[in-house]
Amino acid sequence: MVGVRQFDEDEMIATALDVFWRKGLHDATMQDLAAATGVQRGSLYNAYGDKEAIFLRAFDQYAAQFLDAASSALAQGDTSARLRDFFDMIIVNMTDGTPQRGCLTTRTALDAAISSPDVRQRVQDVLTRLEQLVGKAISATPNRRSTADANRLARVIVTFTRGLAVMERAGYSRKQLRESATTFIDAVIGDA
Amino acid sequence: MVGVRQFDEDEMIATALDVFWRKGLHDATMQDLAAATGVQRGSLYNAYGDKEAIFLRAFDQYAAQFLDAASSALAQGDTSARLRDFFDMIIVNMTDGTPQRGCLTTRTALDAAISSPDVRQRVQDVLTRLEQLVGKAISATPNRRSTADANRLARVIVTFTRGLAVMERAGYSRKQLRESATTFIDAVIGDA
DNA sequence: GTCAATATTGACATTAATGTCAAGAATGAA
DNA sequence: TTCATTCTTGACATTAATGTCAATATTGAC
């Protein structure tokens, strides 16, 4: 390699993630990315090809850290405690930043109709893996659920997290989201 | 009135709703609206001012019919039956059309960051009124819930419907959504 | 130190959207 | 029948985005 890249790729992708998280794949422009990263538009095209390629890299980074955090949150305690930690993580994740950034996966999912198969696949992968993590977590503690029941319940729980992401966009506060999550956990797990 | 409008306003708004439902406020263009309605762009600007004004009218029509359908679905039977009908209506609503149109309220909510206060308010109003309808419905049958509990539960139920809307966008089938809704109802209401 | 390979830069072409406007067409009212 | 009012139409100006490219700068390898 001879002419050497003038920017740090990891740093670039991390900054791009921030931009995509705040604006979404569709609304973030190459201008936005260039301005935020300090890398010229032309260089970005040269290095990555197009906006979507940058997004996919950024999203992969996001998905990895998100699933990691979910896994950690789901690791300890009884089922209720695991879910409390899990929902806490999710809610903090989506209500962080000024203004709040919301949930990138959910935002990306909503643009499915105008997204490429690659992007759609990424969203499905995150949700599938999240279902698996939740399924394992609620099966890990002593209970009288069948595996099939646990899987169905895991999907319900993941679906509910998506609902929280929508409610956040609709203006519900962190506190309101937490209350709903608590109510949900109590209703679903409380006496099972 | 002298120069007379060449198109039927109700029909025009109904067609506009279809366009917005399929493409979203942001992605639908005045070209799209002009093509679908057969009314020239200039005439639309003359009649309504801008795209958002058309959207607001279309959304109001959508919200009215949606809340009406929800109200009907929630009217009869015990709590489980009411919720089954309610979720059925919601799921059919979002999985209808080819390709599926999804949920307009949810799609609009996700664009909150780039929407006007008027648009955001419309979304909040729909969700608030939906919570009220659900709250009334689950309080209508004999049960041992306090009003406060019913309201919290109503919000959880509405939040779950939003989750279903996201899952639909992520590619889950009508059947999968129905199964999740059933599991949810059983878990939340089944033995309360 | 030279050079070949790569990155950077700014300009350019293209496409597409919004919103405005002047000119023309149509029609209810007097 | 005339006319004032309103709607319709197509053209225009503006803005903003994507993606390409040729010219230039840089630097590791030999």
UniProtKB/TrEMBL annotation, chains A, B:
DNA-binding region: 29-48
Keywords: DNA-binding, Transcription, Transcription regulation
Residues covered by the HTH tetR-type domain: 6-66
InterPro entries (UniProt xref): Homeodomain-like_sf, HTH_TetR, Tet_transcr_reg_TetR-rel_C_sf, TetR_C
GO terms, molecular function: DNA binding
SUPFAM superfamilies, sorted: Homeodomain-like, Tetracyclin repressor-like, C-terminal domain
Protein name: TetR family transcriptional regulator
Gene source species: Bradyrhizobium pachyrhizi
